[in-house]
Each structure stands twice: as structure tokens, then as C-alpha cells.
């Protein structure tokens, strides 16, 4: 049993193998956070915050001199003396924004309930603590799901209006955590298109540190992920807390050291331009947040997220299943293709081991560039006179499966869909909506739009033999208004839009359970756990230059498993940065992903084809490691001239290793790379290098030649052997 309530101390003990999360109901009924960290025995901790000093802090009970401003809380109300970041802001019918939530009851559920219309982790034992604000007739449920073998807790909240008038929810966090120390660094993944998820570390101060997006998407710029860690934490040392939102829309995670030496961190839907009208008897559910803990550095924290997402988030039909090796035509043809060109490409792929051909943008409507046709999801017969049937037939002939690109959330002004429904895109009254990549966003807050897309895309999937869908979304939101919603609900637009996206994703993935979906958003602009729930892998970045990928994949792996990242071998000079890297390096880098090709196969030599076949054979051989293994990051490109990581099987019998030298240097040092995660007693054989004992590999390391060239890689498997 991982959740226990001690009646005597009014304390909740949540625990997994390696962590404890403890809070209590204090004498006044507030939920007081006591401890989150390394596993503890169930001691009475109710003494921890007694007699806290509070000069000049307003006291909710004058005679006791207790101020909410000094109490660590599980959920922070507004207007009663707690000046830190509030978790909830409600505007009542009488204009008041003051809330005062106190403990009412709790229950422990054996099965985790789903969230209505939003993705959530699967899981078991769940605590629901209900708080009430009597004056406003509001109830708040705080959900905690505990994972025993993984150091993670899932949290979310639900607010219910038990009164007779509507109220406006101006803000509601998925979680709040007050930790009784303030000496943290914070780490986040910021970025830009083609430069996604770079690691940025700062010292947490008394100013609010915020990771947020206001773009109606989780964004390239700020992944919904934050870490708080010891000042001296590194990959393998130090106490580290990770926070990740299972949400793809505008989000915010805020952290702040406070004057009493504590840290508050909370997160959820971004409150900017958000307001939700909650009628009498209605409730509102937040997205779920994941809190993970490591007592020994970032790498172990990443492993917690990876195991959690593979086991409890990603569709179990696909999570551990071999991923198709793709050939995508985007970079080899862009919009400039016809039936013959595609068939020739497919013919070239025959027998290489490539198992799925994905037809990217440009196959529909009158789409010959990015100025038209989004929304017209019927075949462009000028380009493809034989329809998809001819292409699928060619694939079948070559023993290759067929995949198709869609951008379901978008509409072009020059499209039949826009001419039929000029009111179906996100736009404010009296202004022409901004375009981005010449397109608008469909109003997914309007259920008619979502229903229409279910019908149209559903029809394409029903009538064609399609085994793979790439779901793209190439712009973020502006105007934030829905022509469908009434005036008083306009600030619900961005969140309702997201609920519409989830509904379409739910429908398509449930109706077509054998179709494999890949997420994408102008590269990796929506790489978040909510998307991963529907789409087992996500296009990590439009930038598939091998050197840039070292940074992008290293950063992304902080939170997301390797099997969630798509990575392709693309053309050189690279289309994004113009760099030339060895084909072997591109292959090795893409092997640590869900792999594929984006090459013009016509431009390749016989020798290149042999390389492709041997790469795919190698990749298929290490699939189980990429899908199930433990990742160890060894050398960070953010910190030095090398990128290196390895993946070890759970039973420590096999591993795969990669090192890349970023820039060649004259008279450079020989790097010794210490391996991780092996069994120190076992002997391991490394092809071309010899047999070594685990403790030697982990303490002495492997030595690499100093004359490795720019962006050169070495990549090999490691096998335990009998001695
Ligand atoms: C985005 C994607 C690319 C490709 C294009 C097509 O940029 O990231 O992979 O699909 O759209 O327009």
C-alpha cells in the first residue's frame, strides 16, 4: 500500500520504493506540506512548521499568530495573507476573488480515474482530498497518484461550483509544492524551431522564475518542464526534482524562493488571457502534472520520466513495439512531386529494410506550395492521377507500408473549406487574423469543426490502406477568439481548442487502433507528454543535421524517452544549417531515436545503399534497447567537445554506445569515457575492441583515438559474455 492516512496526526503518507511525499491537515484544516524527498519511515512530522515567525504577515487567526504566508501548502488560496504564487483565482458572482479552501474529506481509490477529455497517465492507487470553501460554495478535489517502482507522483485538481450562480475561474493550477529550502538551481528546456530543447540552468532567486508558453501550444520555446536541483547537482549527483505538465497548450510553471527560506513551485494552464465560466453544479478539471524525484542527479531523474512514460503514458499497443523504419519524401521532393517520382523513390527503397513510405505535405487539394489547400483533405489528382491507390499499390509491390501526412488543425484562405466555412478559423471580431506560413488555425473550440475533421480524415483512413499518420501543426495561435463561442466564454478559446485537438486525436487513434501516429509541429514545437499519450513518437526537430541533433536529442532526453524521438538521416549539405557530416554519423545519431530516412535515394551510390541496409540491420538489432533500456548520458555537447551516451538493457546483459566528436583539434587529448549502468562483475565483449570487466569499463573507461574528425562517431554494441 503506497498511500496511508494516519488519523492521529492527520497526516497523508505517500510513498514509492525510493521516495516519500508527506502532508497533513493542520489544526485549521489547511493542507500543510511536510516533506518530499528520499524515502522516510512514517514518522510524525506535524511539529515541523509550528510557531513559524510571521512579523508583519497578516494572520488568519489573530490570537494564534499564524500566517498563511509562512505555511507550506498543497494548494494556495488567494487573498488571505499568502502573498506567494496562488494556485487558484476565482471571481465570484459578487465580485470577490477571495477563497479559503479547507479540508473536508478524502478517499483512496484503487484505480486511477481518467480525466474528462484530456490525456492522463494510467496507474493505480490514487488519493483524492476534497477541500471546501464554504463562503463561495466551492469544492476542490486534489488528486495524487503514486507510482511505487518509479519515483513519481501524478497530480491534478478539479474545482466544483456547488452554488447557485456562475463563477469565473481565472486561474487553477494542476499542482503546488512548497519545499522547506530555497537553495536550488532551476533547469529548463528552452529553444526555437530547428534548435529545440536546449538545456538552460539558472540559480533560483527570490524573483519568480517562469517556464511558460502563451502560444496556444506547448511550443519550441519553452517545454512544459522544469527541474529544481541542488546547486552542485550534475548528471549523477545531487537531489533533483522534475515537473512536467501533460498538456499541449499555453502553460506556466513558476518557481520562487521566498523570504522564509522556502521554495514554492506551481504549474498548470497559463492564466494569461484565461477565464472559464463555471455554471452552478459544473466542474473544471486541470491537466495532469508529473512530479518526479531523484536522489542522484539528472540522469536518474530522466530514467524516472522515461520509465513512467513508456509504462503508463504511451499507448501500450505501441510503446514497446518495434517502430517502423520510414522513408519520408519531404526533403527529397518538397512540393515538387508526381506519381512517377514517388513510385521511383519507393522502388529505390525496395529491399533496403525501409518498411514504411510516408507521403508528406503536398498530396491534397491544389497544394503545390504552402499558400493553399489546407483543409481540403482529398487527393490532388493533377499530381497523382491514380490517387493514393497507385502509390499504395506501388508500396505493396515493393513490400513497403504506406503512411500519410495531415495537418488537421489548419486551414488555408485559398481552400474549398474556407470558401464553404469562412467562420471556421480562430479570429477576433473585426480584424483579419494574422497568418503564419500563410495559414490560419481552425476553430477547434467549435465541435462542428472537430466532427467535420473526424469525418474527412476518418474517411481517408477507412478507404485507403494507411498504416502510419504524421499529424503536423505548423503554426501557433494569435487572436485567441472563437467565432463559435459566446462573448462571455471567449477566454476559454485556447483551452477549448486543445480539448478539441485531444478529442480528434482520441477518436482517430481509437477508431484506427492499428494505425501508428507520429506527432509533429513545425519540427518539435509540440513535444509534450499529452501528445505522447496519443502519438508514440514525435518529430523531434526539422533540423536533422547530425551535429545539431547531438544537442537536440541530449536536451530532449532530459524528460522524454529515446523511443519518443523521431530522427531521420537526411541529405548533405544539410538543408537547415548547410553542414556536411559523414553519413555514418547521421546514421549513428538516428539510431538513438525512432529512425527513418529523408534522403533522395536517387542521389545515392551503390555503396550508400549497402550502408543503408547495414544501418537498418544494426538498428533492428538494438530496437529492444531503444524501446526498453536505461539511458545513461556520458558526455554533454553543452559542456565539452564530445557527445556520448549509452543505453543498457534492464538485465545489464546488453548495451549500445555512441560517442561523437564535435570539432577535430590538433594534438587533442585522448578521451577516456567511463561507461555506466553495467554489472561490475560481468565481462563484456565490444566488437573490435576486446573483452573487458564491467568494473573496468565503468571506472577506467574506454579510450578513443585523438584523431577523430569533425562530427565523427563511434557506435557499437556491448554484450555480456560467459568467461
Ligand atoms: C513541417 C514538418 C516537416 C514537413 C513540413 C511540411 O515543417 O516539421 O517535417 O512535414 O512541415 O510542410
Q: How big is the Rg?
A: 27 Å
Percentage of residues in strands? 25-35%
Tally of individual helices: 12
Number of distinct beta strands: 38
Assign an overall shape: globular
Largest sheet: 10 strands, antiparallel
Please identify the structural class as seen in this structure: alpha+beta
List low-pLDDT spans: none
Describe this structure in words.
This protein is of the alpha+beta class. The strands form 7 sheets. Strands 6, 7, 8, 9, 11, 12, 14, 15, 19 and 20 form a 10-stranded antiparallel beta sheet that branches. The chain has an 8-stranded parallel barrel with strand order 21-22-23-26-27-28-29-30, surrounded by 4 helices. The mean pLDDT is 96. The structure holds alpha-D-galactopyranose (GLA). Alpha-D-galactopyranose binds next to loops.
Amino acid at each position: 500500500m503506497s498511500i496511508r492516512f494516519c488519523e492521529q496526526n492527520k497526516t497523508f503518507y505517500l510513498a514509492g520504493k525510493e521516495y516519500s511525499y508527506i502532508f497533513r491537515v493542520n489544526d485549521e484544516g489547511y493542507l500543510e506540506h511536510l516533506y518530499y524527498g528520499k524515502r522516510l519511515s512514517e514518522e510524525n512530522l506535524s511539529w515541523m512548521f509550528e510557531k513559524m515567525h510571521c512579523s508583519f504577515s497578516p494572520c488568519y487567526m489573530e490570537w494564534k499568530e499564524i500566517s498563511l504566508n509562512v505555511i507550506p501548502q498543497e494548494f494556495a488560496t488567494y487573498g488571505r495573507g499568502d502573498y506567494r504564487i496562488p494556485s487558484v483565482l476565482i471571481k465570484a458572482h459578487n465580485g470577490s476573488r477571495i477563497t479559503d479552501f479547507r479540508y473536508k474529506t478524502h478517499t483512496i481509490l484503487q484505480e486511477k480515474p481518467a480525466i474528462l477529455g484530456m490525456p492522463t497517465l494510467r496507474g493505480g492507487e490514487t488519493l483524492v482530498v476534497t477541500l471546501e470553501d464554504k463562503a463561495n460554495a466551492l469544492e476542490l478535489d486534489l488528486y495524487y497518484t503514486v507510482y511505487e517502482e518509479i519515483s513519481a507522483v501524478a497530480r491534478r485538481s478539479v474545482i466544483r461550483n456547488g452554488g447557485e450562480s456562475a463563477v469565473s475561474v481565472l486561474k487553477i493550477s494542476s499542482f503546488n509544492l512548497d519545499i522547506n529550502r530555497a537553495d536550488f538551481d532551476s533547469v529548463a528546456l528552452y529553444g526555437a524551431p530547428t534548435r529545440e530543447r536546449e538545456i538552460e540552468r539558472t540559480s533560483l532567486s527570490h524573483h519568480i522564475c517562469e517556464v511558460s508558453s502563451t502560444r496556444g501550444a506547448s511550443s519550441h520555446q519553452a517545454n512544459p518542464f522544469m527541474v529544481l536541483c541542488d546547486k552542485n547537482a550534475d548528471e549523477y549527483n545531487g537531489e533533483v526534482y522534475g515537473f512536467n505538465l501533460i498538456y499541449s497548450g499555453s502553460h506556466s510553471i513558476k518557481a520562487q524562493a521566498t523570504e522564509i527560506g522556502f521554495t514554492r513551485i506551481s504549474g498548470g494552464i497559463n492564466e494569461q488571457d484565461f477565464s472559464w465560466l463555471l455554471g452552478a453544479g459544473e466542474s473544471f478539471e486541470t491537466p495532469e502534472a508529473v512530479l518526479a524525484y531523484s536522489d542522484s542527479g539528472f540522469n536518474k531523474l530522466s530514467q524516472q520520466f522515461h520509465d513512467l512514460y513508456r509504462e503508463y503514458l504511451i499507448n501500450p499497443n505501441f510503446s514497446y513495439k518495434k517502430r517502423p523504419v520510414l522513408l519520408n519524401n519531404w526533403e527529397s521532393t518538397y512540393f515538387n512531386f508526381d506519381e512517377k517520382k514517388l513510385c521511383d523513390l519507393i522502388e529505390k527503397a525496395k529491399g533496403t529494410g525501409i518498411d514504411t513510405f510516408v507521403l508528406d505535405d503536398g498530396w491534397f487539394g491544389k497544394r503545390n506550395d504552402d499558400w493553399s489547400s489546407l483543409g481540403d483533405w482529398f487527393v490532388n489528382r493533377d499530381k497523382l492521377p491514380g490517387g493514393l491507390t497507385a502509390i499504395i499499390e506501388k508500396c505493396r509491390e515493393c513490400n513497403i507500408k504506406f503512411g500519410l501526412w495531415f495537418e488537421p488543425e489548419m486551414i488555408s484562405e485559398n481552400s474549398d473549406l474556407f470558401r464553404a466555412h469562412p467562420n471556421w478559423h480562430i479570429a477576433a471580431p473585426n480584424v483579419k487574423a494574422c497568418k503564419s506560413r500563410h495559414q490560419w488555425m481552425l476553430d477547434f473550440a467549435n465541435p462542428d469543426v472537430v466532427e467535420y475533421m473526424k469525418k474527412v480524415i476518418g474517411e481517408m483512413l477507412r478507404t485507403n490502406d494507411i498504416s502510419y499518420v504524421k499529424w503536423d501543426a505548423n503554426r501557433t495561435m494569435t487572436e485567441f477568439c472563437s467565432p463559435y463561442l459566446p462573448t462571455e466564454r471567449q477566454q476559454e478559446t485556447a483551452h477549448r481548442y486543445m480539448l478539441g485537438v485531444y478529442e480528434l486525436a482520441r477518436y482517430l487513434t481509437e477508431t484506427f487502433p492499428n494505425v501508428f501516429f507520429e506527432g509533429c509541429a513545425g519540427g518539435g514545437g509540440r513535444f509534450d507528454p499529452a501528445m505522447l499519450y496519443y502519438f508514440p513518437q514525435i518529430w523531434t526537430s526539422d533540423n536533422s543535421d547530425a551535429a545539431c541533433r547531438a544537442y537536440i536529442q541530449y536536451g530532449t532526453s532530459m524528460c522524454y524517452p529515446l523511443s519518443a524521438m523521431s530522427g531521420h538521416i537526411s541529405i548533405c549539405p544539410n538543408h537547415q544549417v548547410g553542414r556536411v557530416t559523414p553519413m555514418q554519423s547521421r546514421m549513428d545519431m538516428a539510431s538513438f531515436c525512432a529512425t527513418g530516412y529523408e534522403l533522395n535515394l536517387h542521389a545515392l551510390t551503390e555503396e550508400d545503399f549497402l550502408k543503408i541496409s547495414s544501418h537498418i540491420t544494426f538498428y533492428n538489432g538494438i530496437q529492444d534497447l531503444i524501446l526498453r533500456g536505461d539511458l545513461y548520458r556520458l558526455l554533454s555537447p553543452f559542456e565539452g567537445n564530445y557527445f556520448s551516451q549509452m543505453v543498457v538493457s534492464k538485465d545489464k546483459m546488453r548495451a549500445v554506445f555512441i560517442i561523437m566528436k564535435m570539432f577535430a583539434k590538433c594534438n587533442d587529448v585522448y578521451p577516456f569515457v567511463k561507461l555506466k549502468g553495467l554489472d561490475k562483475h560481468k565481462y563484456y565483449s565490444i566488437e573490435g575492441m576486446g573483452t573487458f570487466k564491467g568494473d573496468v569499463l565503468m571506472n577506467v573507461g574506454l579510450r578513443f583515438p585523438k584523431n577523430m574528425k569533425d562530427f565523427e562517431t563511434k557506435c557499437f554494441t556491448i554484450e555480456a559474455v560467459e568467461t
